[in-house]
What does this fold into?
Amino acid sequence: MNRKVLSLVLLVVTFVATYLIVCFCIPGMRIKLEAEPLEYFLASITHMVFFKSAISLLAGLVVGAFPLFIKSKK
It folds into this structure.
């Protein structure tokens, strides 16, 4: 797999995983809402979207840059 494609895939996967972890696993970021599961999920994703996106993008860039800096043994 090309390094740039691998880097992009890692960035996207890390971004999504980090965003969901920030939404649901960090107690300070969780919202207190008595609602149906779909409504709670959508509200959790849209609450503080810019802050959560910035954290997730930073983590994605760090992980996505690994394949670009690792030299192959060819």
